[in-house]
Amino acid sequence: MSGEVKTDGLPLSPLGTAAGPEPELLCIFGTGDLGRSLGQRLLQTGYRVVYGSRRPHSCGPVPQGAQVQPMVQSRCVIFNCFSIASSSLPVLMGFYYQVLVDLSNNLKKDIYPEANAVYLQRLVPGAAVVKGLNTLSAWTLQNGPLAGKQVFLCGDSAEAKQAVSDVATRLSLSVVDRGSLSAARELEDFPLRLFPEWRLPLRVALGLTAFFFFYLLIRDVIYAYVEKGNDISFRIMVSLANKVFPIVSLIMLSLCYLPGVLASFFQLYRGTKYRCFPDWLDRWMLCRKQLGLVALGFAFLHAIYTFIIPIRYAVRHKLISLVMKNNKSTPFDFDKTEAWATDSFYVMGILGFFLYVLLGLSSLPSVGSALSWREFTFIQSKLGHLTLVICTVHGYIYGWNKFLRPSTYKWWTPPGYMLCLVVPSIVLVLKLLLLLPCVDRTVTRIRQGWERTEPGEERDEIKATNL
Amino acid sequence: MSGEVKTDGLPLSPLGTAAGPEPELLCIFGTGDLGRSLGQRLLQTGYRVVYGSRRPHSCGPVPQGAQVQPMVQSRCVIFNCFSIASSSLPVLMGFYYQVLVDLSNNLKKDIYPEANAVYLQRLVPGAAVVKGLNTLSAWTLQNGPLAGKQVFLCGDSAEAKQAVSDVATRLSLSVVDRGSLSAARELEDFPLRLFPEWRLPLRVALGLTAFFFFYLLIRDVIYAYVEKGNDISFRIMVSLANKVFPIVSLIMLSLCYLPGVLASFFQLYRGTKYRCFPDWLDRWMLCRKQLGLVALGFAFLHAIYTFIIPIRYAVRHKLISLVMKNNKSTPFDFDKTEAWATDSFYVMGILGFFLYVLLGLSSLPSVGSALSWREFTFIQSKLGHLTLVICTVHGYIYGWNKFLRPSTYKWWTPPGYMLCLVVPSIVLVLKLLLLLPCVDRTVTRIRQGWERTEPGEERDEIKATNL
Amino acid sequence: MSGEVKTDGLPLSPLGTAAGPEPELLCIFGTGDLGRSLGQRLLQTGYRVVYGSRRPHSCGPVPQGAQVQPMVQSRCVIFNCFSIASSSLPVLMGFYYQVLVDLSNNLKKDIYPEANAVYLQRLVPGAAVVKGLNTLSAWTLQNGPLAGKQVFLCGDSAEAKQAVSDVATRLSLSVVDRGSLSAARELEDFPLRLFPEWRLPLRVALGLTAFFFFYLLIRDVIYAYVEKGNDISFRIMVSLANKVFPIVSLIMLSLCYLPGVLASFFQLYRGTKYRCFPDWLDRWMLCRKQLGLVALGFAFLHAIYTFIIPIRYAVRHKLISLVMKNNKSTPFDFDKTEAWATDSFYVMGILGFFLYVLLGLSSLPSVGSALSWREFTFIQSKLGHLTLVICTVHGYIYGWNKFLRPSTYKWWTPPGYMLCLVVPSIVLVLKLLLLLPCVDRTVTRIRQGWERTEPGEERDEIKATNL
After folding, report:
1. Hey, which of A54, C114, C162, C401 would disulfide with A16, CB 3.0 to 4.6 Å?
2. Which helix (H) or strand (E) holds A408?
3. How far apart are CA C180 and CA A359, in angstroms?
4. Looking at the partner chain, which of B194, B231, B364 has a beta carbon nearest the beta carbon of A374?
């Protein structure tokens, strides 16, 4: 091949030709951790980066390849990485109409009367302020793969948002537009949120745990002390906890499937799917995944607590005492029914736990996103209800020969496992009702957009859904 | 900074300037769940959205910011979110040459003689129909992060596909072009598939489980009943299951490594890697990951079944009976060989399970994609074969002192663990053969593109691969 | 709608119009696995693909839709998928100024004096060589979703890099620019790396395991043999290992939190966060995640080893012997303190393991990327230190009544659990010091950019960080 270079012919890329060989220029205010990390990434992605600083010679280290200027010299997108709006900002920005992206966050909620970005817009009225990218941290920019990370934008100028969105897309970020600058406050609260969707499930779990702990403490430990003078308080640590955990786990699992059943009954009653559910049901449905994961956590604890039973001091002591007492008395008969019952009990527990773990795995983001809609529904609905059935049976077998004994009802209170079977049983009965062919058909038709028409009402003939 | 706004200077972004400050317009037919969710997302991403409806005032709620029009007023990309092709479609589409994206799906396979998209193309011959995005569900569009989700397109017009692809890319979706509109049928079947790649492994698992269950039922339970009159049917629940699970798990793990070994022998025999493998081997190799994960599931069940052994009624009873019988007789001697053997047996099982779990973790999509090719190969090949070796040794130790006893061969049948060691042993022997230096060298050369040349045959001198 | 087609009106897409309906042309050299898989993907993404081969009729199969040409006929981006630089390359490239992407990798490190891409650039001086995409394997291109996979580019021509980057972005890849062609060597080493960040943690784990194994071997097994003539070597397999694993796990968990504490003290001492940490501390901090995951692996082994304790032959034998010996002697009294202590010990272990698993789950890429910065910090710092506290307490309870007995100090050496508590105790004491209000306030201010000013030193008034 000759060394001759032809520059005519097809352009290499429309973008490349439009902007010339010179890469686009971006400006960053602030040489803190965030500013430096952002600059580093932008340089790696192929942009030119300039830092704005009024004292270019004492502003700390900037990434290799970036320059420092006392004032922005040309029109470009500016990233404000100062944590506070500085009075030097208008000077730094120079005389061009700029796009100013505000990445700042607050340390606490509601410490300022207005959003930082709104304040900034008042400070530099000639700029198009875009709030956004503020969920990125210096650490993520330095270490993590950004690909697919969701960032939010808001601002009053569509053109400015488009410009920022282009930069974010080049960084492989996934951009969501949240509307006008009035949404800035909401965006500034994003990095401060601490598991908002986990709060309700965790509170429910805490409440149930506390209730059943004290209920069983009274029934088991205090009852034994008051009525028989036995101090069995050592049981609190393992035996009692191992009764509370499965109870809470089973109730939370059924609470995870109850709202879906309730929603179906709402739709049946109203005869349409186009009316909103009550607010509490909506919130409940949105935290089903978290309810299920908390339930899985309790089931996991229950499993481990069960595995260590035989190495506990108290259990070994009981076994040895039993042997020493029974020594010469009547032979210790093998009860086949007991063997069948306990083994079935364990098997149900194991299978339930296995399905529980499968459900948990399928709710991992990367696993879930690889499933088709039908597969996801199959796992979360069919497999989920099967898990609930198996775990409920596990509970029923536990009490199969106890519920008729008077000794079960200490102080006229039902044992914990009976209480915990109430909610799952209701959920399963309701679900069974929904599976009746006539009910099922109506629900399916409603879900496909059909409505129970009432006289004098007319609607568009096309009711469409792809769900 | 003065409030003065300069609009000359560098353009903010080529796209922004080309399309003007006005964002692109998209049209959606159908205000069902899918139509509304899609519109919501498109609005968030910065598009203008118009819903097409012949009765704009009674078509149900549309997302805030979207308009409803009785007919498409300008040229734009149209998303058909009706589940059925409506006769009003041609009217709705107006008089422009439109790109019509068909998102519809069927409720079942093969209920229509032709693909929806093909029917649509006949209905509106002037439009460029693109089938695609139909794997998106209303739920995903509302809640999930779309980033990186794979969507498929097909259509006869490259220009139309490009336009749709641009929209999908803006939504952070990952687009795969599947060719002409004749592929529409295939695309419409995607959302209906239910774990197609899991079917073969699950069937193999089911078959093996059934076979070994009945085999061991006959050998253990029925044999004891017929020959000795013992009813030990209670063992079915745990003891028998805990023999079947490890057997199936080990066989499936070896089935997971067998096709790779077979493929190497095929290549050795043929002296080239450029000839296709037989069809059955190809299909087998494609479901290796699923085979391994099903094997892990069985290993997990085996582990939990083992952990609960000591709390079983039958085991406790046996222990107590043993103590009571042995009471005054000869002292119960400690057998060091037995202690070593059983402990080694357990340790091999634990290490095998640990490696199994590591393999399973590395096949999580998000973990696997973070590995380099060499790392992935290291884990799946080196670590995988190590797991197979350890699990096979676990099996051999189990039978170390039993295979010579006549009582092992009840009714002249070999015990289950012997049967299950056949396949893994074959795989390991074949793998050892492949690791012999002379064989290994030839296989490596073949994999790098070398071919055993035969007389009169000539090929391009450059055989390249980066694998 | 009339069949009439209007081609005026809004363009369908700026790109589509610029390039015309004809999709962009790309060229691939090499029809090996990599070349074919890449071509397949590019065709699916909507490009036209041509293979360059000097013998078009004998170059092996190419994907359907691709052509084979003896020389590149027009200007386009060329992908070099040969594993070796062929002398026919300059001829193949034709007479245009081309962008040549070099995807080649080496089989081993440092087998050639210069990077392949640099050699290629000398071979075809008229082309703009871009090194990159070489972390893609044929397997990934065929099977995996590419979305979000990170690829690296380097090259001397910004325009050429932009062109390649555009193709990669269309393939949903996430592109990172690594600068000029001099970085090619580094890029060529990427696919050869084998868990570089895991090396240090694994070496530490191996060292600690070996040390404690031999230490406990001497103290337990050899001591018993020498002093009492007991051969208890069978304990090596399970009992000894189950002492070594928790020790190594706890030490590694504390090593995972030590560097963070040290870094705070460094910052306190220096009064600024703008000075770099010593090199060893930086490297230590970068492998904290791996340290933690290795610690989790050991904790997992410890848990399973504990679960199988009661089914071990030695343990059953000891239990039976105990019963038979104690038979008629004094009754076996129930010690409530012992019951409380052992149960607390187990509960601490279980809770610690539970939190350990939570920490491990949150370090899965897909889970971690869904967390906000504050959530991630909460889990890794608050929950992490809580885990360390609980596991340390687990260790202390183990030795609560043993540390005063002379029999504990065999051969005047402290037992293993004492040694293993040293590092975690130090970390926790240092962390407590940092939590003192006065110290905490200073550290927080330093982290927000404040510096202990020394006379004569002046810095920019704006210290900004969003961390």
Report:
1. C162
2. none
3. 48
4. B194
Q: What is the pLDDT of residues A387-427, one digit of tens each?
A: 999 999 999 998 877 777 777 778 888 888 889 999 999 99
How high is the pLDDT of residue B465? 37
| Residue of B165, B462, B463, B467 to mutate, interface with C, max C Cβ within 10 Å | B462
Mean pLDDT in order along chain C per 10 residues (467 residues): 39 38 78 84 84 72 80 80 69 73 79 82 85 83 72 86 85 79 84 85 96 92 88 88 95 95 90 81 90 96 94 85 64 80 93 95 83 84 94 90 77 86 95 92 80 54 38
CB-CB under 8 Å, A308 with C306: yes
CA distance A63 to A83: 19
Radius of gyration of chain A (CA): 32
User: Length of chain A, please?
Assistant: 467
Position A193, amino acid: R
Residue B467: pLDDT band with limits 50, 70, 90: very low
CA distance B113 to B105: 14
CATH architecture of A25-192: 3-Layer(aba) Sandwich (3.40)
Residues 76-135 of B with CB under 8 A from C: 76-77, 90-91, 93-97, 99, 124-127
For chain B, percent of residues with pLDDT exceeding 70? 85
Question: Please, what's the largest Cα pairwise distance for chain A?
Answer: 107
Q: Do B145 and A459 touch (CB under 8 A)?
A: no
Encoded tokens for C269 = 């001492």
Of C21, C82, C191, the CB nearest to B374: C191
Name the strands in the sheet holding B128-132, side by side, starting at the edge strand that comes first in the sequence: B67-69, B48-52, B25-29, B77-80, B99-102, B128-132, B150-155, B174-177
Beta bridge partner(s), residue A68? A51
Query: B334 and chain A: CB distance < 8 Å anywhere?
Result: no
Residue C286 phi/psi, 5-degree rounding, is: -75, -20
Q: How far is B386 from B390, CA to CA, in rounded Å?
A: 6
Contact B203, B234 (CB under 8 A): no
| ipTM metric | 0.82
DSSP secondary structure string for all residues of C179-247:
-SGGGHHHHHHGGG---GGGHHHHHHHHHHHHHHHHHHIIIIIIHHHHHH----GGGGTTTTHHHHHHH
Give C-chain residues touching B148 at CB under 8 angstroms: 145, 147-148, 172
Bridge partners of residue B77, in order along the sequence: B26, B99
The four Cα atoms C419, C421, C422, C427 give a dihedral, to 10 degrees, of 160
Residue-range domain boundaries for chain C? 25-192, 196-325+336-452
Task: Say how far apart CA C107 and CA C111 lie, in whole Å.
Answer: 8
Q: What are phi and psi of C99, to 5 degrees?
A: -95, 120
Nearest Cα to Cα of residue B21 among A14, A161, C12, A95:
A161
CA dist., res. A436 & res. B204, Å (int): 34
Choose among A5, A12, A82: nearest Cβ to C159.
A12
| CB contact (8 A) between residue A163 and residue B2 | no
Inform me whether the pLDDT recorded for B302 exceeds 60. Answer: yes
> Given an 8 Å threshold on Cβ–Cβ distance, is C1 in contact with B159?
no
- The token duo for C225 is 């043999």
Residue of B158, B176, B374 with shortest CB distance to C44: B176
Rounded to whole angstroms, how far apart are CA atoms A27 and A69? 10
Which tokens is C246 given? Answer: 């928790």
DSSP codes of every residue in B27-85:
EEE--SHHHHHHHHHHHHTT-EEEEE-SSTTSS----TT-EEESS--S--EEEE--SS-
| Of the candidates B187, B77, B80, the residue with the CA atom closest to the CA atom of residue B132 | B187
